[in-house]
Amino acid sequence: MNYPGGAKKNNSNNSSDSIISKLSHKNRGMTLENELNLSNEYYREIDKAFIYKKPTPIKITKVDYPSRDKAVIKEAIFTIPSTTDYNGLYKGKYIDFEAKETKSKTSFSLNNIHLHQINHLRNIYNHSGIAFIIVRFTTLNETYLLMVKDFLDYIDNNDRKSIPIEFFKDKAYIIKDGYMPRIDYLKVIDEIIGG
User: What is the mean pLDDT of residues 49-74?
Assistant: First the structure.
């Protein structure tokens, strides 16, 4: 049946169809964060893991209320430093990670990760959680998962202000781009912890 404007009605009730539409051709240049959010949504849809992007903790100080359904935040402040980007549960284990992108072809600057985030990841690791960082070298189109143990070993034993790409190639796990999910980082976690 032809609908006005050439639109076709979607009769599908499958929630994974909405994820598929978000991964269409037009979204190929999306950011790492968007791809991780879609991947995590997919993991939840198939009941594989429950991992979420953490909201940034803010305190709203000024709101404009033209009407109840059109409230607009005009001013807010960060209340406390945020920890890492993502956390949740996978196979009965707590999982926590930070995700970063860099345009550098040679290294990942440690200025991209704050000391409180490093300390947070260290605490997760010390309490037997699954902790790691995901770093995308955008110019190289390479995405790596670096377990926090290797990350901490590097920063605790080196004076450099960056981690060279060679370290990622040696110690980290490359994550190949996929379709469903776009970034299947849990496949890497399964290789590491068994699955």
Answer: 78
